[in-house]
Amino acid sequence: MEKKMKNKTSVATQEGDRCPDNSAFKQQRLPAWKPQLTIASVLSSFFLTGAFCLAVGVCLVLSANSVREIQIDYSDKCSDCSKLRENSSNWNKECHCSINFTLKEDILGDVFMYYGLQNFYQNHRRYMMSRSDAQLLGRNVNRSYCAPFSTYRNGTPMAPCGAIANSMFNDTIDLFYNGNSSVIQVPLLKTGNSWWTDKNVKFRNPKSHNLSSAFAGTAHPPYWQKPVYLLDEEDERNNGYVNDDFIVWMRVSAFATFRNLYRRLRRTRHFADGLPAGNYTFRISYNFPVTRFKGRKHVILSTVVWSGGSNPFLGIAYVVSGAAATLTGFVITGIHLKLRKKKTYFQKQ
Amino acid sequence: SVVCKRQTRGAAASCGWSSCPQLEKETGNRELSYSSLAENNSIKTSKYNFFTFLPLNLFEQFQRIANAYFLFLLILQLIPQISSLAWFTTVVPLVLVLAVSGVKDAIDDFNRHKSDKHVNNRPVQVLINGMLKEQKWMNVQVGDIIKLENNNFVTADLLLLSSSEPHSLTYIETADIDDNFLDQDFHFCFYLLFTGEVRCEAPNNKLDKFTGTLTLRGEKYALDNEKMLLRGCTIRNTEWCFGLVIYAGPDTKLMQNSGKTTFKRTSIDRLMNVLVLVIFAFLGLMCLILAIGNGIWEHDKGYYFQVYLPWAEGVNSASYSGFLMFWSYVIILNTVVPISLYVSVEIIRLGNSFYIDWDRKMYYPLNDTPAQARTTTLNEELGQIRYIFSDKTGTLTQNIMCFNKCSINGKSYGMLCFSYSLGFVPLCHTEKVDFSYNPLADPKFAFYDRSLVEAVRLNDVPAHRFFRLLSLCHTVMPEEKKEGNLVYQAQSPDEGALVTAARNFGFVFRARTPETITVVEMGETKIYKLLAILDFNNVRKRMSVIVRSPEGDLTLYCKGADTILYELLHPSCNSLKEETTEHLNEFAGEGLRTLVVAYKSLEEDYFQDWIRRHHEASTALEGREEKLSELYEEIEKDLMLLGATAIEDKLQDGVPQTIETLAKANIKIWVLTGDKQETAMNIGYSCNLLNDDMEDVFVIEGSTSDDVLNELRNARKKMKPDSFLDSDEINIQFEKSSKKQIIIPDEQANGVYGLVITGHSLAYALEGNLELELVRTACMCKVVICCRVTPLQKAQVVELVKKYKKAVTLAIGDGANDVSMIKTAHIGVGISGQEGMQAVLSSDFSFAQFRYLQRLLLVHGRWSYIRMCKFLKYFFYKNFAFTLVHFWYGFFSGFSAQTVYDEWFITLYNLVYTSLPVLGMSLFDQDVDDRWSMLFPQLYVPGQQNLYFNKVVFVKCMLQGIYSSLILFFIPYGAMYNTVRSDGKAIADYQSFALMAQTCLLIVVSVQIGLDTSYWTVVNQFFIWGSLSVYFAITFTMYSDGMYLIFTASFPFIGTARNTLSQPNVWLAIFLSIALCVLPVVGFRFLKAQLKPTPSDKVRRNYLIKPEILLSMAWARWGAALHRLGSAWSRGQELATAIVPSKKHRNPSGGGSVEPQALNTSLLH
Questions:
Q1: Do the chains contact at B1079 and A37, CB–CB below 8 Å?
Q2: Model's pTM, two decimal places?
Q3: S-S: B358 plus which of A20, B736, B779, B1050, CB 3.0-4.6 Å?
Q4: For A253, which of B370, B897, B989 is closest by C-beta distance?
Q5: What CA–CA distance (Å, rounded) separates B487 from B1065?
Q6: Is the Cβ–Cβ distance between B938 and B665 less than 8 Å?
Q7: Which residues of B are catalytic?
């Protein structure tokens, strides 16, 4: 037998010119790792994932619960204002309203003030497209993506152009602390609310000796009350396109319900530790109409934790998934044990 | 039929009959009057030129549905109201795909241009005005006389006029046409003085046929294929020759043959086309839902939102907006039908074809032949074969013939001393006959019966006549380079064996001219005049020669198939006929190929009359063949029986084992052979097709339609009695549906059966009403042997199974008679063996030995199939998961056709981020390695049943994709809803959401491909990790400050990656999406493997747990082989004494194979 084998191999080594190469690649013999779904790997993946998810989930839920948040819907609180704003001819009439609320406990740490909008479709494709990034970079652009808000009929270009800019949220919200004797305006920071990249790279004012001349020859968007170079007259670095409120608004939301950072608490003096308990008042200059499209407006005060805001979704999802994974792990163990019993029974037979 | 008239007036060449190696040059001028289709000999196989390339190639490419669809999308995108995606999302993939195909076409065409140019500019010597002048090939015209020298390529289809060799023979190698090495043409030298006229048929593609006449000085000569030199051949062993150009350029037979190739498509291809249509419908449905949604939304909300977002120009109603949105969504969701699908499929098939070419285990060192995938589009079908149709001679056997036995005048001679089918086992102790008395004997020839030699030496008249016949009646060419060193060039190996036998027994065929045959009879040289050759064909199944001996006797010698010849015998031979029949049956029972030989003395007067009529008939332009065959019939009757010859056709190595393995893989094997029933059945036993374990072997040999029907019915009754009940499903189905579209499901017989059917009965069975009966009965049997079938019947049988069984068929053969079958079957395999290359040229795969078939199917086929299925499953999955996220987002974005992902991500997803990992899997994946696929042929079964990819699997992929897309949308949605970053800043913005969703998606599909990959080579690791890294690298690059400042409009996502991917909750959401997408799949797969394991699961489980089993199985195999050898040897002893072995004993695999089988089954449970 062996002799025959040898003969055969000696024949096989007589290779002609057309004999294929004996490389691992060509002979499909590349060394390889061959993972398999074994009971050990499957169960460990289920149980480990389960345990991890449960742990993370509990942490997330706990931290989300530790977030203090106050959310007030003020769309109808100032009924006169909302009615007034329904008619667009009243655009230059001012309308103010105040909303009182009480903090029973101190809110410690950094406090952020957001405005929230509901039913405002910032993620509509045509809305989202209607902007000119080049213009916001301070470039002079002729071709514009800003339809239908690019130029006025007389040819004056809008600055900034586009539906997003035109619809910028323009309520002003101030917060007052009603102390025992006096009313103190809570100090709020209006800068540092946007991404560093947006503030420093994505948005730039046109270059000129002063801002108003930089925007010469342009007009503010139709719904704006003042031109873009008057957005913040106090702070040169927060004016024009690089205004934080404007930048925040221009970062459009993914969904129709969203909140944007409006102000941050400046932690000085009375408010060094956060917002102390007591009575507060929001003074709102009501400019942004929402009733027409059945939207809602909120003002929100909130703290943050490592996982972000108060959204409990991720925590709950983790807990549920972790529980499900662990449970499935047990079910698989059960099935496996049952099958193995059956198998040994057969083998004995 | 159209007859094209070509005259060669003025062109003249003359040469002497047998003494004119020189060509006398006469005036030949080129003023020819011919009506021709081709002006000159230039050929053009290229399709494009420099200017037409772009338009023509693009036109061709856009005829493909996928490309046209993308063009349509592109046009949609140009409409501003509809355009929902940037132009580059469609243009980049489309241009890439078009460019890849375009470059491939351009290279192909460039090569064709080059070869055309090369061919057209080859020099050739043309006789112009009596002078030989060098001309380019393309300038050669019809009617030219050209001179070719040794090793020249034949320029055009030529009529041979003369050559340097004696008798104007010219040797040609027909490699380009069919590789019949050193074919010979007999050519007669014509006196062509001044005027001649050649009439020939219109150009056609029949390589083996040519009809024409030559008129010279009022005399007509018949022209046939023998006198033609076809373009594509090469002149060999001939110093020079002259030829007249008959067909030139595109009219030549070679060019007429090229081009039209039948295009085979695999079942996966067809399924894919159906699925693409289903997906289109699905796409339409999704778009419709979203369009309606948009209509409602615009009516309910968008109408009021117009303060901030007025409706687009020209849109004045919600329903019109919905209509526009339908098309916008068609653009966005187009990725469910990815353009890269078809390209990827082609790449995978090409790669897997290369593996076949590269496989050393399918390389045959003896004739230096590697396996070859000639068609690169059918690989995965190799993993689905359910029926193999095999030729016998040259496919199962080696086609090396040995003259073993004969029967002369009622006496049987010879002994079967070496049986190759049982291995190289000596069966008797008799010594080889010593032929040393004959100086011209072939030393390799072996014969084991002295009595025959003695009979010859004692001048036994019938024995002399027998061998004289064998030395005269054939078409073999001798070659005697050295004195006494004779080499025979035979077109069929049978003839070679017979002539060699006659040579050794003292009737040495020495030389041949067109008119004479020189034979050295017992040392005495005799020259016979060859008066006529009545040649062999598949209908006649016999050949005859008419010779005049030196003594002046006129004799007709005939050899042929017994059934045919027996009907032509003179009644006086009846008793001899009986004895010979007995011997014939005995020979056939041993698996030998038999021929009957007979002779007839002719009368002078009758013969003269006959030869005159023969000449007339052979120059007739129309109906020549019919007239000739009538004449042949007339003279070939009242023959005197001489005896019979028996030739052994050796079995190829490893055939029984291969057949056993293939049978275990549930592949049904049908042998279609031209041999007699007994021979075929015996080969069936010796190569393990038929064996003792079978309940019964039915033989269908009825000679009327009713007989055949009864026999078939009886067989079926025995195999499955209840198939005749009215309650039988198939019978019910028959009644319901019309017979034409019926697909017969598989029926299970109550045991293992074999069926043998003769060609005669098959002819009836293939007729309309019996077809179904035949298919039902035959397909219940494990093995079917059809004997005495014609090439056409072979194709019909294949067609029959294709028509009524929804099964993939494979035909394997080596000869020209298998071509039709090879072309008909889903997959044709050619054995590159003795019988030339015609089968190989029309095949899809080719290799040298039948035993490589098991590797082709069980290893390459299986892998290709599994890889393709895995590829398709994953591909559809990843695109569904990718695209449907847009669908869900539609409900949250006012159905405004807003995409979830960055447009660049959409562009690059299929092309860059996910293409290589899946290609890597489809090129390298192995669920079990090749040894295991061969050891467990059961692993092949799922492919046959199409279990790995079908409509159900597709729906599952779709559901998995939908599930994943839900997770991939709603987890990021939930995680982002009203959330802020840990520094209080925005993260719920669109760009962050897009980045998060696309990162989730990409990691999920990468993990999924990792889960699907069961064989992680370095390449797979590189591709998977590489793709992920590339994703992050590209993303960070595109979202960088620099890119934004340079291409502001194109890369608005500046900073998103930095600001988002630094957040813990983003990564937590990504992790959760992965866990939720992947864990259910893991659990589901594991439980499925536990509860309903596939054969592959079982083998893999054992593979992991007990690798030592492989070793023990290998040992069991060796044990079985040893056992087999031992029993064969002991059987040899029996054979020597009993001569006629019983069929039952000739099963070489005996009981030894039980062991591995038992092991096999135990492993699988």
A1: no
A2: 0.80
A3: A20
A4: B989
A5: 86
A6: yes
A7: 391
